């Protein structure tokens, strides 16, 4: 048996013991702690932490969940990490988020489907159980595709509307995608959807310094929920969002962003399109539009959500430019085939 110290970002440390060949995630759960976890197969990256000391074995994961560079830097997937000595692991979440709670199925009804563009749609679910959902803006749920045993992960794109007992999501339309096909060809208002969660350590922390948000494609969804929360609570710090997409058709929810800019003090945003054929005035990638005034000489919290190539490009850019923010939180996603 080995002891593992779990250091949470709010300064709390919890100690667990692992049995022979037991992963850190399983040992934590057995000890009454729900550290961030979802797939348990080394595929989603939800359980990514940093091993600050100790020896371990780790295999059976994919690059999208943990890159070679991250592995070299001692980042680990706790669902695949088997300690071979006492270890110290830094968990990118507060201890309060990781208290034992059973994820339960939430049964909801499809209340609305909106085709926002050729490539993107939004959907809203409602019901008594939805009103009782508790999550942090930035987290996601697994939604079961009706008529199958398959699920797809979607970030909340709104907070719960308690009056309407509803909450919303963004989805990229993937040709022949399981959920995409259901939503575009089969779904009807009133259909039942089953949600499980919330999951993820990508969520909005207390805002104590300037914030820079970087969104790629439907990675805009968690930021819409974050901005709704900021709108409700108010904010004295500058918050800037850079929203990047590949084609003009991928630009969605700009009216919502404009509304947030008009209602949230110190919030600004810009949107850029990578395609050379774009008619949008601002071209290029999000890294082309990260200005010194957004970085505040490193006194900034950066949040990044987008597809793996975007996340890796931003990581590489920050290393090349020696950008060292006060905190850096990111989540990468890929469309399920």
From TrEMBL:
Pfam families: FAD_binding_6 (PF00970), Fer2 (PF00111), NAD_binding_1 (PF00175). GO terms for molecular function: dioxygenase activity. Residues 2-95 form the 2Fe-2S ferredoxin-type domain. Keywords: Dioxygenase, Oxidoreductase. Its cofactor is [2Fe-2S] cluster. NCBIfam families: BenC (NF040810). InterPro entries: 2Fe-2S_ferredoxin-like_sf (IPR036010), 2Fe-2S_ferredoxin-type (IPR001041), 2Fe2S_fd_BS (IPR006058), BenC-like_FAD_NAD-bd (IPR047683), Beta-grasp_dom_sf (IPR012675), Cbr1-like_FAD-bd_dom (IPR008333), FAD-bd_FR_type (IPR017927), Flavoprot_Pyr_Nucl_cyt_Rdtase (IPR001709). This is Ring-hydroxylating dioxygenase ferredoxin reductase family protein. Residues 103-205 form the FAD-binding FR-type domain.
